[in-house]
Specification:
- 2 copies of one chain form a homodimer.
- Chain A is mainly α.
- The first copy, chain A, folds into 2 domains: 54 residues, Homeodomain-like (Arc Repressor Mutant, subunit A); 164 residues, Tetracycline Repressor, domain 2, CATH 1.10.357.10.
- Chain A is 82% helix and 0% strand.
- Chain A is built from 11 helices and no strands.
- The termini of chain A are far apart.
- The relative contact order of chain A is 0.09.
- At the A-B interface, α1, α7, α8, α9 and α10 of A face α1, α8, α9 and α10 of B.
- Chain A binds a DNA duplex (30 and 30 nucleotides) through α1 and α3.
Chain lengths: 225, 225
DNA sequence: TCAATGAATGACTGGCAGTCAGTTGTAACG
DNA sequence: CGTTACAACTGACTGCCAGTCATTCATTGA
């Protein structure tokens, strides 16, 4: 009996249609200025139907955001797969994150904005746990990479892997969102190129994490860049 | 003719009353869930009157936030005034920022939230420039401190003062808002104490900024802590 | 006492998130 | 093929709230 299955397929298709429509609108208007009516119209469904699939505007917003997280995770996994050492993988991670930031700016913005406590208070329990799981996947990934770097003797032994992960992630994300918010503003009023600042900061941080031994090795085998 | 002056005084008093009422409500509910009606009631004024003094809810929000920035700036100026070297002043700055974070949590939250582009788009031109000026004051303050540290030979000469300022500020703020968002969550799911992470990160960053010479000196004259 | 001026008011408007009574389309059954 | 059952879908409607504006009120100066 394939009818059940077909219905199942149609249902997930609907969910996806809604997600695509929502993504378009959220990208263009942001959470605040997007309206459910516009999303419904774009999805060629009535507003009521949207609420059959997502509990609230905020839930829908997070659902779109989570696709972004999945994408980022996939990019991470791919980029680090072919690296030899953990430190090389960490550098690749930084590059990929920067790439994600530039090529999927709207997703990055949603990802960052979704960290607001105010938002999470208005979201269903299920969505929150789903986010939490996705989130954890990425954190574990980074953390384990750093732990491996310590084992391999390239990252300083006196550092706490998770602390390093938090510092790296926080600093990077925060500078990126500063760029996103108004790189031009910084350029014009303070003559600062934030893209350069981001690159320098990453270099500075990664360098400061490494053991003297690893730094020495790096100097003997400079990267292609 | 003191009438003009009295009226002037009364007007600024009103502005302040409204600000105080708004602060209470925003602290309790956040921007989204606060209503102008509630603010009006708390200020013992009608809603219409509020709009004679502030153009929109968002403007009012930023006005409250800016008092927070002023407070922070004052705390900064005080704390660094009595330090001998720039590096000592920088450490004092970090301590004071942490203190501000803990003692004025709601203001910190507003300060951080006010960095959202979405918010700034809904705010009057005047408010935006006022924010910008206040913002710049703090950035210049930090930047100059770092530049002084370089001159004094305690901070590495190969670093760009403004880049360092951005990195320090971004990393710190981002970790703090992570604590604010849910330190308990991190403790329970990943067994991480984010307060410790913050302290370690600051130590790590400040240490990595310093010249070998300055680090050496520090070891000979350890701080009181 | 009486305009004149400006501050304050609150009923009202428009817009939007979320709901729900009702409609439609489809499958299963006799 | 007619009928029932059921799930998917609809869109008019409700409640809420930011922001407005015609009106009221208070003060001042003549």
């Amino acid at each position: 009996m394939g009818i059940q299955e077909r219905k199942e397929r149609e249902k997930t298709q609907r969910r996806d249609d809604i997600l695509n429509a929502a993504q378009e609108v959220f990208f263009e208007k942001g959470l605040q200025n997007a309206t459910m009516d516009e999303i419904a119209e774009k999805a060629e469904l009535s507003k009521g139907t949207i609420y059959l699939y997502y509990r609230s505007k905020e839930d829908l917003y997070l659902a779109v955001m989570m696709r972004g997280m999945e994408l980022l995770y996939t990019m991470f996994a791919q980029a680090t797969g072919k690296q030899r050492s953990a430190v090389e993988a960490l550098r690749a991670l930084a590059d990929v994150y920067t790439q994600f930031f530039h090529e999927h700016r709207s997703l990055f913005r949603m990802l960052h904005f979704s960290q607001t406590p105010q938002l999470h208070k208005q979201v269903s329990e299920e969505m929150r746990t789903a986010c939490s799981i996705q989130n954890m996947k990425i954190w574990n990934f980074v953390q384990e990479l750093i732990a491996r770097g310590i084992e391999e003797g390239d990252i300083r032994r006196d550092l706490n892997p998770i602390a390093v992960a938090v510092l790296l992630w926080s600093a990077t994300t925060s500078i990126m969102s500063r760029i996103d918010y108004g790189a031009e503003y910084w350029k014009s009023t303070m003559n600062v190129d934030l893209d350069t600042v981001l690159r320098q900061s990453l270099e500075f941080l990664l360098d400061a994490l490494m053991t003297p031994h690893a730094r020495e090795q790096l100097r003997q085998q400079p990267s292609i860049s």
